[in-house]
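Fold sample X.
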Amino acid sequence: MSHEQDNEGFRIQRTDPIDDDVAPGRSVFGDDEISFEDDDAAVPHWSQPPTGSVPKVGAPAESVTFNPQAEPEPAEPGAEEHPGWAAESTGPTWAGEGQVRPPSPPPRSVDMDADAFFAHDDDEPPPPPTAPPPSLSAALGVSGGDRNFFTATVVGIGLAILILAAMAYREWVAVAVVTVVLAVAAVEFFNAVRVAGLQPAVLLGLASVVSMPLAVYWRGESAAGLVLVLSVVFGALWYLLVAPSDSPVRGLGSTMLGILHVGLLGSYAALMLSIPDHGTGLLTAAIIVTVSYDTGALVVGRTMGRSPLSAASPNKTLEGLVGGVVAAIGAAFVMGFLSQPSPLADVSTGGGFTDILILGIAAAIAAPAGDLAESQIKRDLGIKDMGSILPSHGGILDRFDSLLFVLPTTFYVSRFVLP
């Protein structure tokens, strides 16, 4: 046994003497030499072609023979997958075998239009759009909004003529027309409130609105207070006994708002008709200045409107307001020049040019206030129109919103200026 200590201080113990060199083919650990004597094949030289066989290590290179074979023919399709068909001369016939497919068409451009994207391949192409015929409003140079200017003007003037014709025929006929108009307006209001999620007492509200003009025409303005008191009392009983609600305050409040806004303000038309000799003249003056304001505001607002008037009604403009005010005062000026209608424009009845001009100024203030008040109500309810009975106007209430404020204004102006 020999001992050897390296530089690191480790000692290696061995039984065999240490060889200085390691002979080729011999283990570095001093074991038996590696021998290839039993092998009968040697590894071929790298420059010789491959033989396809694995020779034994240690055999002489001359013992390795190279026997090239012909390249095998490719097997028929499906022979490997279906060995039972390999012996058949014909073999299976595959779909499309031997057929020449036509070349693919060139790719088409992608249409990113939504309608074309979701359309079916067998849908017929839609016809090309045709230009709509020019409307009369476009011919007049009036644009903007979604209402037809000409239709709106004709409908407004037509309603005014209808009421004026009823007044010229009989006062009671005019009262009946006023009552029907207010009833339709009340139906529109309560329906809009219900759509918004509130629960008004519809039957009670309709009964109060219809009875209001009849009561004041029969018993004067003191009858309006009686109708309002009864409406509050029966409204409380309605939500207590007839239709209990989780929110009776909101329900009764919306009911009373409809009665006050439509019934009370509208009943001033019947109240003026109850004035002997001068009732039809007062109502005629109120209708004329209101229609003049609406028409002037519509024309100027559509043609020159640029500055928004209020957030409650974004479509209304300051230019339209100025146009309506000028039109209302101008209509009052014309009535004063003609001394008609009586009594405000007639000197013989205590009126005159100044009196009718005062009415024009007051109406020019009340009309836009009524228009904006209803716009605020509709905006709070989340609706655009109260109804759809009138072409290019919406509902009855949309048409008479300004008049509802002008009616009491005309009544109290006449009380103030007339002897």
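Fold sample Y, listed below.
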Amino acid sequence: MQLTSAKSHTNHEITIALAGGSVLGPFRATWSTEIKSDVRELTRDYDAYLNGTKQTRFKYHLHDYAQNLSHSLVIRFENVTAIYDRVELLEHHRDLHTD
């Protein structure tokens, strides 16, 4: 899939730490208004879970369009200790944060 603009998407790298010390990932994923990817929903749902909301969704699809891959995660948040979401910033964002 060709995205219409470099500004229309963000590239994420998700790493999930599990109880007991195991780690899943990192998983590269692309988010865009043009494509379906659950990368943002995963971190939002986990944050809601940490704030007391009961988990109702267990399956997430992370799409990496650069590598033409789709990762399917079936995960129970009670076994997760942390989710790290590394987001690649676009050039115009980098310019805003330089001294």
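Sample Y note: The chain has two helices and five strands.
Also: The helical segments are 39-50, 91-96.
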